[in-house]
Design goal:
This protein is α/β, with parallel strands linked by helices. It has helices spanning about 60-75, 85-90, 95-110, 135-150, and strands at about 5-15, 30-40, 75-80, 115, 125-130, 160-165, 170-175. The protein is built from 4 helices and 7 strands. The protein starts with a strand and ends with a strand. The chain binds the ligand Nc1nc2c(c(=O)[nH]1)N=C([C@H](O)[C@H](O)COP(=O)(O)OP(=O)(O)OP(=O)(O)O)CN2.
Amino acid sequence: MNAPYRITRRIEIDAGHRIMTHGSKCRHLHGHRYAIEAVCEAADLHHGGEQTDMVLDFGFLKDEMLTAIDGPCDHGFIAALADRELLTMFCPMGRDVDGWLAGLDAQVRAHGEATTTDTRLGTKLTVVPFQPTAECLARHWFTRLAEPVGRRSDGQARLVSVKVWETPNCTAEFSG
Ligand SMILES: Nc1nc2c(c(=O)[nH]1)N=C([C@H](O)[C@H](O)COP(=O)(O)OP(=O)(O)OP(=O)(O)O)CN2
């Protein structure tokens, strides 16, 4: 049964990506103003402290969404680790491409993603171990937000879903 209390917080970011296996236009490098909504639920509200009568302070949820989503991805390019040809374009001039890619690979394996400005133009790059479709981004951001939601609510709240708008007309949602 669903818990009776639900809260939702939305943030928006700008990021580039491409879907390398796409049959048409999404293979091209392009950008979106992504909107991301996180939904949290609780069986009861806090009964004391600074979150009294709340599921989870909207401000705390915003902070965690900025850390998990905006920090790594806003005004960056989100690329699949498997998209070697694209990543090669980001490799700094004069660097050994295989070595540079191996460094990204190690970070992705250790941390689930790699964010760097050690790139050819010094632009922000986030490498993820999946194709950056709206569905996979929703799952990825859910995974990164679930623990902070529990911690910041002192165990009171649970992350229910993350919904990603890739365009004003298209959304994907992941529920845990
Ligand atoms: N299920 C999914 N389908 C598509 C994804 C995705 O992440 N999941 N992504 C894309 C592209 O990245 C594309 O940018 C968005 O597709 P599309 O709806 O075709 O975009 P439009 O700009 O044409 O949207 P309009 O609302 O018509 O302007 C493709 N598919």
